[in-house]
Specification:
Elements: E1 2-4, E2 14-23, E3 26-37, H1 52-58, E4 62-65, E5 69-76, E6 82-95, E7 103-113
Antiparallel strand pairs: 1-2, 2-3, 3-4, 5-6, 6-7
Length: 116
């Protein structure tokens, strides 16, 4: 999963996620989502933002919205854990129903995949 936490969405408690399900080295499913925390309770302090899996584990309420259209291009994908793993790609013209999001373009280029 690739999570992006844009400053412009911070006040809305919203972030973006790209989820890739990889089976036997092949991308079986790719999903883009805007995740908005709807829980009114104060969140426990953590050193880094939480993705949707961590929110679910902690019992924090959130809403997920998927775009109605757009394209996802994966340029480089290495799902193995370790510092040498490189992953990059982009989400283009992803249209969200939320008027504040509208059309979203997102690109990523990261090194290192952490294992859990």
């Amino acid at each position: 999963m690739i999570s992006s936490y844009p400053k412009s969405l911070e006040r809305r408690r919203t972030h973006l996620e790209i989820r890739l399900r990889i089976v036997e080295g092949f991308v079986e499913e790719a999903v883009a989502a805007a995740i908005t925390i709807t829980d009114r309770r104060p969140l426990p302090a953590v050193k880094r933002p939480r993705d949707s899996f961590e929110l679910r584990e902690e019992g924090i309420e959130y809403q997920e919205e998927n775009p109605g259209s757009g394209s996802l291009i994966v340029a480089e994908l290495d799902p193995r854990t370790g510092a040498a793993s490189a992953n990059s790609g982009r989400l283009e013209k992803a249209e969200f129903a939320d008027k504040d999001l509208g059309f979203v373009n997102l690109s990523w280029s990261v090194r290192g995949v952490a294992g859990k």
